[in-house]
Amino acid sequence: MPGVADAGPIATSNTAILLGGDEVLKVSLLSAEPGKPGFPRLLAGEMPVSQQAREVVIDQNVVLRSGIGLGDRITLRSTQGTEDKFYDLKVVGIAEGSLYTFQPSIFVSYSTWDTVRTKSDAEVGRESTTVNVIAVKFAPDADFETVESNILTRVENVEVADIPTAIANVPGYSAQQNTVQTQAVFTLLIGILVIGGFFQIQVLQKVPQIGVMKAIGASNAVVGLAAVIQIVVITVLGVAIGGGLTYIFSLNFPPTVPIVFNGTASAIALAALLLIGPLGGLVSVIYAVRIEPLKALRLS
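Predicted structure:
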């Protein structure tokens, strides 16, 4: 099809890796064709050699949580109908860390996926011959709108979505993002109130000193600038210490905590924190410049 350089099917399910005893690691079981769009980039090892090979590529999160490595054999437990089935696969590759439905992922060929995947009673003994997701790689000179139009024109009963839209529609993703964003907004609002209250108390304690400064000729601009400088310096120190400790603590988080520091997101968060200092202290600055010297010194 014009504009399409390559395409690869993707299928999803879930299973569990037996780690010994009663311990298991629940993982997302994903099928993608090696070398095709949708297959992850390998960090080590190689891709499965054929559709029939009982081989698996595990992502970095599986390695961190289980200690499984290249060349190891893993046993998968999959519920099929009313029974648990067990399958042995050889680890031939390790891919970049990726989570699907909040679980680490393993990648197999479509034939292996169809054999291993969780099945209902109606699916047991029946081979699946269709997938409902196709990853498409565009030709270098193609644009999304043109390729989308070509696909919708030539293929029936299909929807086309770019990567951000597809990610946003993964089950649970939007709800989780809304929760995190709500927490972030309330954190900033609480920060404004806390910083504002702190500097308000500080100014109240310094009313006599501010009165003396004004009595000997300090202007409102000088008083306001002094307050702003103190607020900015304290905020910068607080953000630097807090950001540094956050990063240090994150290095010791267990691999089950999916935290990733993104440069752009981190810069926005730091900028927002630096901005709430002056915003929170604005009330105290206004109060400081309105202090009357005689009242402050109790001479009025």
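Summary: The radius of gyration is 29 Å.
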